[in-house]
Design brief:
With 295 residues, the protein is of the alpha+beta class. It contains four helices and 13 strands. Strands 2, 3, 4, 8, 9, 11 and 12 form a seven-stranded antiparallel beta sheet that branches. Strands 1, 5, 6, 7, 10 and 13 form a six-stranded antiparallel beta sheet that branches. Strand 5 and strand 6 (144-147) form a beta hairpin. The longest helix has 11 residues, at 226-236. The chain starts with 13 loop residues before the first strand and ends with a strand. The relative contact order is 0.30.
Amino acid sequence: MKVAVFAFSLICVMVVVNAAVPQDQEDVRGAFLTSRPKEKPATQTAPARANRRRPKPNTPGPSSSGNKTPDLSNTTPDKSTPVVVNKARIGLGLTLFTRDSNGLAVRTDPSRVFHKGDRVRVLLETNTDGFLYIFNTTNDGPPIMIYPDINLDEAGNYIQAHVPFEIPSSAGAHEGLRWLVFDEFAGDEKLYFVFTREPLNGVPIEDDLVSFCKTSSSACPLRPVAELWEMVKKELKQPLQTDQAARYGKAQTSSEKEASTRGLGLAKDDPQPSVIMMASSTSSTLVTKLDLVHQ
């Protein structure tokens, strides 16, 4: 698979959400959407595009520089700060769009089989602020980190609650950068989504990632170290509560598109994600995977 601007030229196929095991639903969809605001934000004060860099902290936060042994779990609290209890469960919403004959983005079933020339885009939404990492493997080969990326969002990966994130962006400079395009080459592509409350230790982001890639250009896209990848696969096995929509075919709304390209939050009356996954109440990390299998 060739990586171009956002890391795809070949993506073929049948999409399956992994590690999202249905359990007692406990109104998963309601729990995820409860933190959406009732009213839409004022568009006249919205930025021209989403800012994916972390807000400047008042005190130094956890270090994210270097490429040392990573820590995915983030389960050990800092004894110098109060421990927050009853924190909302971490959740991730996913909607798959395909390009129809009129050029519109319409919701499609993740289990649908795609063919050469089909185009798709993924829309992600979280229910809390955090950091998004995306890894890709081809035919179960070595993983590479395709987000954050030095050519996207100033190498940032900070995601705000209910501010949607597109893969790739519909605001791309031209049509070829706005969709994942299915071509004639067979292959087994997997996208791993890692959403966590705090940056992963040992994985550079923002200026650290830019500096790392400039000094070690051959090392970018970044290949996660073995310890990190083992942790990703371990977290992938953790069961998630999930809720999947029964109907598809509706076009992406203008409010969804504007929200994803301008960094606006979605409101309660905006369309809901097709698939919603919630981690356990004790987890600070959610890992899931999309299988894209050529047919």
